Amino acid sequence: MLYREYETWRGAPYRLGGLSERGVDCSGLVYLTFRDAFATPLPRTTRKQSTKGEPVSRHALQSGDLVFFQTGVNTRHVGIYIEQNKFLHASTSRGVMVSYLTSDYWDARFTHARRIPIQ
Fold first, then answer.
1. Signal: is it a keyword of this entry (predicted)?
2. Which of these is catalytic: 2, 12, 24, 26?
3. 2-115 CATH fold
C-alpha cells in the first residue's frame, strides 16, 4: 500500500504547508497518506504527529510506523517507514521520495518512531 502511495506522490515537489501533488511538506504527506490510504486521522504538524500512537524502537519498526528526525536546531522531519530500512517522505531538496534510515544523513538525525493504530 505504501508503494502505491509513493507512485502517486513520487516527484511531487516540497512546499511548506502544501497539501497537493503540486507541492507537499513532510507532515502533509503523512497526514494525507494516513487519511487517504488508511482512513486514519492524524494532526497536520510534525510536532503533533510525534505525540500520537505508541513509541516503537528503531529495531522493531513495521510498515506504516512514523519515523522522526531532528534536521536542524528547531526543525523536525517525519516520514513513514516502508520496510527494510526504507521510508517515504517529502524531502526539501528532492520532493517526495524513498530514503534509507541507514544512510549517514538520516541515521545521525533519527530521534524516535511512533506506531499509529490503523482504524
1. yes
2. 26
3. endopeptidase fold (from Nostoc punctiforme) (3.90.1720)
What percent of the chain lies above the pLDDT cut of 90? 94
Among residues 71, 81, 77, 80, the alpha carbon closest in space to that of 108 is found at 71
Set 27, 42, 77, 88: catalytic member: 77
Q: What is the pLDDT of residues 106-115, one digit of tens each?
A: 999 999 999 9
26 is catalytic: yes
Tens digit of pLDDT for each residue in 27-69? Answer: 999 999 999 999 999 999 999 999 999 999 999 999 999 999 9
Active site residue 59: no
pTM: 0.96
Burial class from Cβ neighbours inside 10 Å (0-12, 13-18, 19+) for residue 80 reads buried
Q: Of the listed 28, 49, 88, 89, which one is catalytic?
A: 89
